[in-house]
Amino acid sequence: MRSLADASEHFLKYCKHPEYLNAGNSDPLADDANSPWNTYRQDEILRAEILQDVQRLPDEPFYHQPHIQTLITDVLFIYCKLNPDVGGYRQGMHELLAPIVYVVEQDAIDPADASSGPTGDLTMVEMLDASFIEHDSFALFSRVMDCAKAFYETVESSDTTGKVAFGLQSTKSSIVEKSQYIHEVCLYKVDPELSVHLTSIEVLPQVFLIRWIRLLFSREFPFDQMLILWDNLFSVDPTFKLISFICTSMLLRIRWDLLEADYSVALQHLLKYPAPQPPNGPHTFVEDAVYLQDHLDVSGGTALITKYTGRAPNPLNRSQPTTPRASAPSLRQRLAGTRSPLSPPRFRPPPGGVEAFFGAAKNVLEQGEKLGINQAVRDAMVEIRRNVQEAKTSMKTSRDLFTEPRPNTAIRAVAVMDRRNRQLASMLEEPIASLRNLSTTPGLSEDRQKAHDALEVAVAKLQFIKPRWR
């Protein structure tokens, strides 16, 4: 393809002009992979998926103009068609393109207006010609994706365990590996105390880092501050090699809040990052990342923590093992290592499972303020964790009973297990009832967004409970 115009004419031919489908002799019901009807149906599915995300862009009025949404959808569609190696459209790409379109449109100049006014720089008028907003946006987005596409890729895993038994293709997400690297290597080197704490309260790094990285922090800060951050990032590091250090510096900036937090509070801080106060706006994270690139050690972390919080970490609390994995394994890890050799390989959910939970958490926290459900979710999480702890205590009691040489041990153990099962059933009752209400409440279908948010809350609760009882 020589230009975006050529690509648009080729790939959008049937989408923009479906009447052309009737010009040929192809059968719309024929099972032919090369049929234009088959291509048209697949393209419409892809465009519907893209448009669904575009319509959920943040509440910036510019994003919700019909012609802007069409432009964003067309650019993403053509990019995916021209770059099949990326693996198709991935959620999050629309939030990288949207700010680019905004900036290009704001800077655009109408040549007619420029010619009628004072004589200006003709080169600038040509560069910012409003007739080429779509073309310029596509070119800039493609340049960003040259380096950012690695954040959206999944690759084949070298681990073949379980492939034969389940007939599955083992894959791993590079973004999950990058998230683990930031937590277990970068953060641990500069602040081992914080790294170990996040591990101890079971905060998975990919739950919040996937959004930070894939969206280049566009959801973490106010829109105008985010644009300044992008300006700094693109000028200093257009290859995005500083991304890991930016994430690390963001964690250091709120380290005291995280150290005092339990799981639910820490997750709230990380999924709704506190806005940095002037003069240390988000753009300073790029400066901190450049510093950490050359000072990735405890002294470097201490320098940044002291600079922004006025408090220096206690050296006595920072003497940790050489690696966070050197600590005693958890009960789940110990049990995992004692499985019978005759048992089939344990099925591991694909990376999409992690991303599904991340998406649910993101939508709940971002839209919860509008619907008044954030406090309800936090209260539910606290209640769930308390019930989980009680159930675990019951499990420990049941194990103790099995080891006690008493006549009524079996009867008491059954009673304890029955009580535990009732607790689990009670924990699941509320989210399951919420899911059922979505299909039975009269008139709820008329408010699809509200129904979607209610579903996300219920799913988040179930996702929170399920891993603890595998």
From TrEMBL:
Polar residues: compositionally biased ranges: 316-325
Residue ranges of coiled coil: none
Gene3D superfamilies in alphabetical order: putative rabgap domain of human tbc1 domain family member 14 like domains, Ypt/Rab-GAP domain of gyp1p, domain 3
Top-level lineage group: Eukaryota
InterPro entries per UniProt: Rab-GAP-TBC_dom (IPR000195), Rab-GAP_TBC_sf (IPR035969)
GO molecular function: GTPase activator activity
Rab-GAP TBC domain boundaries: 1-237
SUPFAM superfamilies in the cross-refs: Ypt/Rab-GAP domain of gyp1p (SSF47923)
Region (Disordered): 310-349
UniProt KW keywords: GTPase activation
Pfam family membership, one: RabGAP-TBC
Protein name: Rab-GAP TBC domain-containing protein
